[in-house]
Amino acid sequence: IMMSIYFMNLLRGSASVSRILEVVNTKSEIKELISPVNEMRDGSISFENISFIYPGSSERTLNNIDFRIKSGETLGIIGSTGSSKSTLVQLIPRLYDVTEGSVKVGGVDVRDYDLKLLRDKVAFVLQKNTLFSGTIKSNMKWGNENASDEEIIEALKHAQAWEFVSTYDDGLDHIVEQNGDNYSGGQKQRLSIARALMKSPKAIILDDSTSAVDMATDARIQKAFKHDLPDVTTIIIAQRISSIQHADRIIVMHEGSIESMGSHDELLHESPIYKEIYESQQRGVIGE
Question: What is the per-residue pLDDT for 20?
Fold first, then answer.
C-alpha cells in the first residue's frame, strides 16, 4: 500500500514539475529596449489609431481607437460586457502590446519606457485584488518599501480606507489574513487603491475596483482624487454610471470601438447606449 501511494505521488509530482518548469521557462513577449526612457514627464495619455488582436486570434478586439487624455484629467469608460473596456486600458502599462498604432504616456511611446518605471507610474487596480498575509503596513509597503507611517495614512485617507483602519487598536499593524479574508470586499478594494497610490503614480487605472463599495464612499473616493491628487490622471472603468458621471469625459465602448465620447449630460442626449444604461440603472434604484 505504501509503495502504491509513493508511486502515485511520484507521478503527480513529476507532472507538477513539468507544468511549473513550463511556466518558468516561458519567455515574455513584451520586449524592452537596451536603453529605455527612465523618466515620465506627466500623466497625459494618447491612443493613436490603435488596433489590437489577441495572440492566436484573427479578429480585431480593438479597432481604430484614437483619443487623448490630458494630465490630471478624469476619464470614465463604460460599455456592455465584452466591449473590450479592460483590454483598452491594459495596453497602457503594456500588459499587451498594440497590433497597430501607438499608446503614449507623457508624450513617449510606452514601448520606449523602462518596464518597471512604466508600471510604477501607471498604477492598475483590478476589481479583485490580492492582499498578502501580514499587516496593513506590510501590504502598503508593497507599493513603496520605504514609506513612512504618515505617507501610508495619507494614501489610506485618499482611498477612504483610513475610516475603518483608524478604528483598530493596533492601527497599521492590524493583521491581514491570506487574501484579506478578514476584510469585506469593499475594504479590500479600498486597501488595494491605497497600495497603488503608494507608488506616487502619474496615472491610475481603476478597473471596476469600486464595485463592492457603496455609492457614498465611491463618491468620496472620486472627490478625494479630484481635489487631493489633481495632477494624477485617473481612468475609471465602471458598470455604475454613478461612479463616472462626474468625470471630465466619458467613453462609451461598443464591440471594440468608441461609440461616443463626452460629458454625462452630452452622452444622455447623443449616445443611445449610454442613455439605455442610465435609464435601466435609474429604474433599478427607484425599484429598490
Answer: 93
User: How far is it, in rounded angstroms, from Cα 40 to Cα 202?
Assistant: 8
Residue 141 confidence (pLDDT): 93
Predicted pLDDT of residue 287: 54
pLDDT of residue 42: 94
Fill in the amino acid letter for 134: G
Residue 37: closest CA among 126, 107, 137: 107
Three-state helix/strand/coil letters over the chain: CHHHHHHHHHHHHHHHHHHHHHHHCCCCCCCCCCCCECCCCCCCEEEEEEEECCCCCCCCCEEEEEEEECCCCEEEEEECCCCCHHHHHHCCCCCCCCCEEEEEECCEEHHHECHHHHHHHEEEECCCCCCCCEEHHHHHCCCCCCCCHHHHHHHHHHCCCHHHHCCCCCHHHCEECHHHCCCCHHHHHHHHHHHHHCCCCCEEEEECCCCCCCHHHHHHHHHHHHHHCCCCEEEEECCCHHHCCCCCEEEEEECCEEEEEECHHHHHHHCHHHHHHHHHHHHHHHHC
pLDDT for the residue numbered 169: 93
Q: Which residues contact 20 (CB under 8 A, 6 or more apart)?
A: none
120/204 Cα distance (integer angstroms)? 10
Give the per-residue pLDDT at 260.
95
Closest by alpha carbon to 201, among 221, 229, 228?
Answer: 229
**Looking at residue 284, what is its pLDDT?**
62
pLDDT for the residue 285: 59
Q: State which residues of the chain have pLDDT below 70.
A: 284-288
Q: The cell 511611446 sits on which residue?
A: 109
pTM summary value: 0.86
Q: Please, are residues 124 and 207 in contact by the beta-carbon 8 Å criterion?
A: yes
**What number of CA atoms fall less than 13 Å from residue 181's CA on the CB side?**
4
